[in-house]
Amino acid sequence: MEAIDKAHIEDRLADWRDRVEDLYSTLDSWLQNDNMYRIERSTPVFFNEEIIGKFDVDDAQLPSANLFRNNKLVASLKPKGLWAIGANGRVDLISKSKLIMLLDLSEQHKDSKWVIVYSKNRKKRLPLNKSNLIKVLNSL
Amino acid sequence: MIYNEIDQDYSNKEFDARSKGYNRKEEAYQKIRSINDHSYFLLAFTRLEDRIKTIARDLINIKVETLSTWSQKRVWNILKKRENNDNLHFLEYVELLTEKGQTDYNLIQAYYRDRNDVAHGGLLSSINMVKVFEDFKRLYKDLAN
């Protein structure tokens, strides 16, 4: 088992931050020529106050993003877990009436494998691709 | 499931606060969701722990009752005594059902560590309840085999 110290946490946080940034860039590229939807980076969220306090981590912020339909905010993407067992992180897509999760099922330091999981039907899992993203956005 | 209803309800409120620029409210709802995760994780772990102890206890009893030769029975007799005296560690119960160092053992051990951290208020990781429910459901079945 890896030792959990400041360096380890900063390393994993940096990796997580990169993967979240990559995710947003991918979504952005899918929506580039879309007439209806767009994604925009928003206020960073703090990762975990206990970690910040205990290990004196310098930069514990993670990027969040907002999704707009015809210039109206319809959902936000907020990174959640990092050390979640069995998943290499989770980004929640929160909206007025739905909660949809994006899980990265990759192993540590491997390429991301994002899947879409519905809060109300966790067995229903879809690979994250352009077509499924649009389906999700249309359902909001 | 109540967990999902609470999580969804507060995520909707979190979004509503965010869309109105109410940062403190947004953080508060986010925190409530995290507390909900921890509470349900503890509840789910308690049920898994109970399941593991019950199956392991049954195994000890069967061995004590059915093995006839002393050489086969002696270890089980000692385990039975320790079990009766409430002197078996949780991970020893786990070790009776699945091989130490293998996937399931390591998974339960990792969850046990998280459970202890949550119980003592110092969890370093986020709990991914999607994965917890999935893993626990599978372990609940598999450990009996």
Describe this protein's structure.
The complex is a heterodimer of chains A (140) and B (145). Chain A has 140 residues and is α+β, with helices and mostly antiparallel strands. Chain A is built from three helices and seven strands, in the order H-E-H-E-E-E-E-E-E-H. Chain A has helices at residues 6-31, 49-55, 130-138; strands at 37-46, 61-69, 72-79, 90-95, 99-104, 114-118, 121-127. Chain A has a seven-stranded antiparallel beta sheet with strand order 1-2-3-4-5-6-7, covered by helices on one side. In chain A, strand 4 and strand 5 form a beta hairpin. Chain A is globular, with a radius of gyration of 15 Å. The model of chain A has no long low-confidence stretch (mean pLDDT 86). Chain B is an all-alpha fold. Chain B is built from six helices and no strands. Chain B has helices at residues 2-19, 23-66, 70-84, 90-97, 103-119, 129-142. In chain B, helix 1 packs antiparallel against helix 2 and helix 2 (23-66) packs across helix 3. The A-B interface holds A 4, 43, 45, 48, 50-51, 54, 73, 75-76, 78, 80-87, 90, 92, 94-99, 101, 103, 117, 119-120, 122 and B 4, 7-8, 11-12, 14-16, 18-19, 23, 30, 107, 110-111, 114, 122-128, 130-135.
